[in-house]
Amino acid sequence: MAEWRPRVNNGYRPPSYRSEAGRREITLLVVMGACSILLWGSPYGGYLLYPFSILATWFHEMGHGLAALAFGYDFERLVIFQNGSGYALYTTMDSPSRLSQAMIAGAGLIGPTLAGCLLILASARRAATRSALVILGLVLIGSTLIWVRSMTGWIVLPLLGVASLAIAFKGREQWRRFAVQFLGVQGCISIYRDFGYLFSEGFVRGGQAQLSDTGVISQALFLPYWFWGGLITAMICAMVFWSLRRAHS
């Protein structure tokens, strides 16, 4: 004999975006993300958000490095400086193709958003939320051992990894859900740690002029760097909107 019972929400699943509670939760995450961007743009905001500034650089540079691996290149090292800037160094026996250069540059911009959206989507299920925090913690620690070659990275990234694991195994369900959503939003907006970078053709590091990621894409493909900056911004906004709505559906 079959018996029907209504599904009971145990308080874990994110509230629907159609409800007041859901809209309030989404608004809070968006506001916190916007505040992070504004603080990064202020003179001392990067220091107030220092662990997340380092995390933002890690997301960005790991996007470059993993894309280089996908193309068969050697991801040699990831360096994060004390001021929060950094770089991913990859080497290859042959000259990289124009397509691979554009894809590797773009991966540093879109890759963190993709990872962030996956974290946000994971918040819709209890098991997925814990798994996401565990995976993030292990990847932070593992990438430090394999690729990171700077003191700042050696100190900050493992601490963030341990914190992620601690929340996964010791935190309350609601805190785990909020943490994975917040970290997901941080991943999505990580490229805006330096807002002007996305809309600049290049920059100077160590007295040497270098192309920005959008500058590399423009040089490797076509159309100006500001076009790619605008397109990537539109893609990031659409991905964040979709993932937040999906997680709260």
From TrEMBL:
It holds the Pfam family Peptidase_M50B. The keyword Amino-acid biosynthesis does not apply. Keywords: Membrane, Transmembrane, Transmembrane helix. InterPro entries: Peptidase_M50B-like. The chain crosses the membrane at residues 26-50, 102-124, 131-148, 154-171, 225-244. This is M50 family metallopeptidase.
